[in-house]
Write a structure and sequence with these properties.
- The structure holds 2 protein chains of 2 kinds.
- Chain A contains 10 helices and 11 strands.
- By secondary structure, chain A is an alpha/beta fold.
- In chain A, β9 and β10 (266-273) form a beta hairpin.
- The relative contact order of chain A is 0.06.
- Chain B is an alpha/beta fold.
- Chain B starts with 14 loop residues before the first strand and ends with a helix.
- Classes of the chains: A alpha/beta, B alpha/beta.
- Chains A and B meet through β1, β2, α1, β4 and β5 of A and β1, α1, β3, α7 and α8 of B.
- β1 of chain A pairs antiparallel with β3 (80-90) of chain B.
């Protein structure tokens, strides 16, 4: 890219060239920026604003009592989160599993961190531990729901984020493998929260035992398809090397302590045994440093991001899908992830719009069909009417003709009769005449004879 | 701990604890920044101003590059917005810059609707973001944010103050976008005129209630510079991408017979101030304001328009699910009603037509009844005539018979007297 006169790296600009002839989008035309523009300062602006806002983090701690959870938390944050006044979960066991939270504010280097520690007194401590994970699931879901509601309000003010961003799950150092409870819990929660499994009280195992134990645990985790928190890939080679090294040491085996002991002139935190001191921050003794660096110094932001972009989005899409199209059907599927359909990529409102459009077109079609049927029936009826009209007309014509015929016949007969009458009358008249003539003649003759 | 540190989480119930050593979460801002840098940033600038006022030149000067831009003509029938996106990189910061120019602004004879395409464009970007936000499966962090973060309003340096088009447009835009007014082509205004012009413009803006963007003064790191810059608004800018030799350096300037106007010389114009404020100091704040204020306002109005409320009739908050379910119920009821309506309409139509057809049938029937009756009458008539004829015939026959009988008798009578006579003669 080249350096400028003042030694700073030349910035560059890329511009998309228009469409190619075949219609595909053009490539990038890269040009160098000639001078210092200044938006390289943007990250500093972001930095300042974030410090002003302050940071929040919600950490959940789960495990049977006596696994050293409180000590570990205190060690991680180098503060008396759990103290005689605020006892740890193992000292607060009630009849049923509780999920309780406490908030602390810690400051370092101008950065304010509001830490919410959520613990689960009573988890795994009963004789019958069936469903002891349910209160945990309910808690996590309720925090998601709170956030969803806050995010969905019309008037959004601050959106307080109390979603659980990381869950440290403590595994008892039995040395053999995961317990059924461990597997159940992780299976049910791996899609709701980032799970970081930890081997507690790692100082009860030798390195070889620890290695074997870790191996066994990872095998079982893979067998049961449990998705624990994964370190993000980076482009940086160095970082990737570190990430891979850490991945080889999962799950992390930790030891906690806030007692300061002097070892070889150094003041370290550790646990004093007759046979030596197990140092908390010694990488050869346990993985505490890795955990702390990973959890706090490098991946805290990523844990928040994964919670926001993956776990929360899963919750949200499941929740919203239940409200939409197949309303009643989906309510049954609430617990499971529905298959992605085209309708899922829309908001419920857009879905309703589409539904409305579908309905309108369906109705139109129905209307058209009904119209057609109607028209057809009317045509039929009209045709029938016309036919019967024609028929009746025809018959009428016929009858009329018939009558006319008879009329004519009658007329004919009458004429004949008249003719006959006339001719007979004429005849009669002739006869009469004849008769008259005859009688006259007779009379004449009579008269003659008399002489 | 500094005495003037503000407790950010004052509203939360919490314990304040002291740390016993270096924990390391002071790297949190760095973690956040490194994530943002990896993601890359988006920045969208809208330039509103008359054709030829120097918008493209200013953009080129601001970003030290020549963005491809055709010269616009004055003959656009309406205002059009032309967005162009560029990928810029400086140090390790990737910036997706979108510059939107208003083409044809101020060229029409009737400028009454000039602001509308601009408002529509801004709203469309908000709408796009809102749509993504409301989707069931969404990817907000991957989404290219096209919402306008800053509107540079170019004021013509002619005249003594703002044109009415300027006031109207800015008033319509101020609740939707951050506005920074700039006096363009400031090299045509003398220093004293410039001061007067600035004062006049600001007072007109204030008296008309136009809310322009104020550089934030809460952050101590930038409070001072921002406060002073606020007093220099509107910035009088000059743009140039030509290099002119001044002294022994090549600088960006405009060469006139009477001297050269150096773009980066703060005595000549406020270009440097604009660049400082816009890019180097307040870019993040502009983005934040757009998201937290302007976008939220748009979203609130849009949701209220669609009938969403936060509280029910008894002031209880609705959960999202309840809201959607209520909407859905309403919607389904509405659909059903429409269906019913259509059916009813159809049923009544059918009834109507049935009645009509029945009428027709009746008519036809009646007609034929009538004809039948006529026919019957005719027949009767005919019968009568026939009978008459019969009778006549019979009468005639009787006459005939009678006459014949008479004749027969007469004949007999005639022949008898002959016989008598004959007998007498004998």
């Amino acid at each position: 890219m080249g350096l400028r006169e003042d030694g700073s790296e030349r910035g560059w600009v890329r511009e998309r060239m228009g469409l190619r002839e075949d219609g595909s989008e053009g490539g990038w035309l890269q040009k160098n920026l000639e001078g210092y523009v200044g938006f390289a300062n943007l990250p500093n602006q972001v930095y300042r604003k974030s410090v002003k806002r302050g940071f929040e983090f919600t950490l959940m701690v789960v495990g049977e009592s006596g696994l050293g959870k409180s000590t570990l938390i205190n060690s991680l944050f180098l503060t008396e989160l759990y103290s005689p006044e605020y006892p740890g979960p193992s000292h607060r066991i009630k009849k049923t599993v509780q999920v309780e939270q406490s908030k602390v504010l810690v400051k370092e280097g101008g950065v304010h961190l509001l830490l919410t520690i959520v613990d689960t007194p009573g988890f795994g401590d009963a004789v019958d531990n069936s469903n002891c994970w349910q209160p945990v699931i309910d808690y996590i879901d309720s925090k998601f729901e709170d956030y969803l509601n806050a995010e969905s309000r019309v008037n959004r003010r601050q959106m307080p984020d109390s979603r659980v961003q990381c869950c440290l799950y403590f595994i008892a150092p039995s040395g053999h493998g995961l317990k059924p409870l461990d597997i159940e819990f992780m299976k049910r929660l791996h899609e709701k929260v980032n799970i970081i499994p930890l081997i507690a009280k790692a100082d009860t195992m030798t390195p070889e035992e620890c290695q074997q134990f870790k191996h066994q645990i990872m095998k079982e985790i893979q067998e049961h398809k449990i998705k624990i928190y994964e370190f993000p890939e980076t482009d940086d080679e160095e970082e990737m090397k570190m990430v891979r090294r850490i991945k080889d040491r999962l799950p992390l085996a930790v030891v906690g302590s806030n007692t300061i002991i002097e070892v070889n002139g150094k003041k370290v935190r550790g646990r004093q045994y007759p046979w030596g001191v197990a140092e908390v921050e010694n990488g050869e003794h346990c993985d505490f440093t890795i955990l702390r660096n990973m959890l706090i110094r490098t991946n805290m932001q990523d844990l928040k991001d994964v919670t926001n972009n993956v776990h929360y989005e899963n919750y949200r899409s499941r929740k919203l899908a239940a409200v939409t199209y197949n309303g009643t059907d989906n309510n049954k599927n609430k617990g499971q992830l529905t298959k992605p359909e085209a309708s899922d990529s829309m908001s419920p409102l857009a879905q309703m719009e589409e539904e409305r459009r579908d309905h309108v077109s369906k109705m139109k079609k129905m209307e058209q069909e009904m119209e057609q049927v109607f028209e057809m029936k009317v045509k039929e009826k009209l045709m029938k009417l016309r036919d019967s009209e024609a028929e009746l007309q025809r018959r009428h014509e016929q009858m009329k003709k018939n009558l006319e015929l008879q009329h004519r016949e009658l007329e004919e007969k009458r004429r004949q009769l008249e003719e006959e009458k006339n001719s007979w009358e004429a005849q009669q008249r002739i006869l009469e005449q004849q008769k008259l003539d005859a009688s006259r003649t007779l009379e004449k003759n009579k008269k003659k004879k008399i002489f | 701990m500094a005495a003037n540190e503000v407790d950010v989480f004052a509203h939360e119930e919490k314990r304040n604890l002291e740390l016993g050593g270096h924990v390391g979460f002071d790297s949190l801002p760095d973690q956040l920044v490194s994530k943002s840098v990896t993601q890359g940033f988006c920045f969208n600038i809208l330039c509103v101003g008359e054709t030829g006022i120097g918008k493209s030149t200013l953009m080129n000067t601001l970003f030290n590059t020549t963005f491809e831009n055709e010269e616009a003509s004055h003959y656009q029938s309406e205002v059009q917005l032309r967005p162009q996106t560029y990928d810029l990189q400086e140090s390790n910061v990737n910036l997706k810059l979108t510059v939107v120019h208003t083409v044809g602004f101020g060229d029409q004879i009737n400028k009454g609707q000039s602001h509308k395409p601009i408002l529509d464009y801004i709203d469309a970007q908000f709408e796009r973001y809102l749509e993504e936000e409301l989707k069931i499966r969404r990817s907000l962090f991957n989404c290219h944010d096209t919402r306008i973060h800053i509107c540079l309003y170019f004021i013509a340096p002619t005249g003594h103050s703002l044109k009415s088009l300027d006031l109207v447009t800015m008033k319509k835009l101020d609740s939707k976008v951050n506005i920074i007014p700039v006096i363009a082509k400031a090299d045509t205004v003398s220093k004293s005129e410039l001061d007067k012009l600035k004062i006049k413009i600001m007072s007109e803006l204030v008296s008309n209630g136009v809310q322009i963007y104020q550089f934030p003064t809460e952050d101590e790191a930038v409070a001072e510079i921002n406060t002073s810059m606020n007093t220099h608004l509107p910035f009088a800018v000059v743009g140039s991408v030509e290099d002119v030799k001044v002294g022994n350096k090549m600088v960006k300037a405009r060469l006139y017979p009477w001297g050269s106007v150096q773009v980066e010389n703060e005595n000549h114009c406020d270009f440097v101030k604009l660049r400082e404020m816009l890019l180097r100091v307040n870019m993040e704040d502009l983005r934040e304001q757009t998201h937290a204020r302007h976008y939220e306002l748009y979203r609130r109005c849009k949701l209220e328009e669609m009938g969403f409320k936060d509280t029910g009739p008894d002031s209880q908050s609705f959960s999202l699910q309840e809201t959607y379910e209520a909407k859905r119920k309403e919607f389904l009821v509405d659909l059903q009603r429409k269906e019913e309506e259509m059916r009813q309409m159809f049923v009544s139509k059918v009834k109507e037509t049935e009645a009509e057809l029945k009428e027709k049938e009746k008519e036809l029937h009646e007609r034929f009844e009538q004809l039948k009756r006529m026919h019957q009458d005719e027949k009767k008539n005919l019968e009568e005539k026939r009978r008459d004829l019969e009778e006549e015939m019979n009468a005639f026959n009787r006459r005939k018979v009678a006459a014949e009988t008479l004749m027969g008798q007469a004949l007999q009578g005639c022949s008898q007297p002959f016989k008598k006579d004959k007998d007498k003669k004998n």
